[in-house]
Design a protein that fits this description.
Number of helices: 8
Radius of gyration: 21 Å
Helix content: 10-25%
Oligomer: single chain
Distance between the termini: 10 Å
Structural class: alpha+beta
Length: 386
């Protein structure tokens, strides 16, 4: 039997009615048993989490379910950026082995957090989808752990972006979970990752020749600030204007390639500079020998980056195509970035022509260069080949 995916969307104000309608729409389009379900609920609905889950289970009877509160939701070709949005994503995955998890942390003396109830690495399957509370869960610590114990396994998902009663709301199967993270591991089914960081590379590639932690001391054997100033001076006027509004630095993660394309860079902001010693600080650990390149971001570059990433997915999928996708897009994107509604959802619809659902995140999870990272202003996708 083929993989099937369906998505239901509602903007009804009554929470039970909204999720009953969305789940019913997904059930009718799916036309097969629902093995896996994702639920994304706008803030006005979160006070009725138990009723939401009951409505979804009544309509779909899913084998496994996770979900979270969302500042905005994404349905097939449509984005509801605020208010009472309801999305139900349903999949029939014959032959797949699925497991849901609740991940917790213990606060140690001094405020440090220790991950609790982590699944055995061998039981994590071939891909993992994580939905985390940004206030109570150290997502980057989890990703560092998974990169170590399961190298190469794609982790996708996002940080919940709407809260109820002072904390983000998470869903797992029939339960509402306060804090931590929920996850679903998938085995026996292929999941392709697609990450669009929404930034364009500009200027020359440069090698880090001196660095410590997240501070770059030298680029190409020159003080980092001086080398960046020279590189900015070489840009055309439009690129210089974008750089003045917020310069980003792309860091190559996997150096084992003859040349570096747009998606090979982990894009991070420049978070500080010390003109007295010529150093710059970036939002990521760096090491000597890494290649970096300046990046800039605006609506046009983000649109171009997303469409290029989607075209790469089309090529990777081949003639068989895809059954559906999960989309995790930053709450700084949408009409704020693109000046038009439904941008990311419409781009997926135009390029892949598949059911896609997801939400606007407070941080997006996805792999770059074979390692998993937490991103911002990014659209990450879990694509399910047909």
């Amino acid at each position: 039997m083929p993989i099937r995916v369906a998505v239901g969307l509602s903007d009804e104000f009554d929470a039970v009615e909204a999720f009953s309608d969305a789940a019913g729409e997904a059930r009718r389009a799916l036309g097969a048993p629902c093995d896996l379900c994702f639920v994304f609920a706008g803030a006005p609905h979160l006070g009725r989490g138990k009723w939401i889950l009951s409505a979804v289970h009544d309509e779909l009877d899913p084998g496994f379910l996770i979900g979270c509160g969302a500042g905005g939701v994404v349905g097939a070709g449509r984005e509801i950026e605020e208010g009472p949005g309801a999305v139900v994503w349903a999949a029939s995955l014959p032959g797949a082995t699925l497991t849901t998890h609740t991940l917790e942390v213990e606060r140690l003396e001094g405020g440090a957090a220790e991950l609790q109830r982590l699944p055995d690495p061998g039981a994590l399957g071939e891909a993992l989808v994580v939905l985390a509370d940004p206030y109570t869960f150290p997502t980057e610590a989890l990703l560092a752990h998974l990169n170590e114990v399961r190298p190469g396994m794609p982790v996708l998902g996002g940080l919940a972006s709407a809260a109820a009663a002072g904390s983000a709301s998470l869903f797992r199967d029939g339960d509402v979970v306060d804090g931590g993270a929920v996850a679903c591991s998938l085995a026996g089914v292929e999941v392709l990752s697609c990450v669009s960081q929404g930034a364009a590379p500009v200027g020359p590639e440069m090698t880090v020749t001196a660095a410590e932690g997240n501070v770059i001391e030298e680029l190409a054997s020159e003080p980092a600030i001086e080398r960046l100033r020279d590189a900015i001076a070489s840009l055309d006027p439009r690129e210089q204007s974008l750089a003045s509004g917020g310069l980003l630095l792309g860091i190559v993660i996997d150096e084992n390639q003859p040349e570096y394309e747009r998606g090979d860079f982990l894009v991070r902001p420049i978070v500080g500079a010390d003109p007295n010693v010529g150093t710059i600080a970036v939002g990521e650990q760096v090491r000597v020998g890494q290649t970096v390149r300046m990046h800039v971001r605006d609506g046009a570059s983000a649109d171009e980056d997303l469409r290029e990433a989607l075209r790469a997915q089309v090529a990777a999928l081949g003639d068989a195509g895809a059954a559906g996708a999960l989309l995790f897009t930053c709450n700084g994107r949408g009409s704020h970035m693109f000046q038009v509604p439904d941008h990311d959802a419409a781009a997926i619809d135009d390029t892949l022509g598949i059911p896609a659902g997801g939400f606007f995140c407070a941080g997006e999870i996805g792999p770059v260069g074979g390692r998993n990272f937490l991103h911002g202003f990014t659209a990450t996708m879990a694509v399910f080949p047909a």
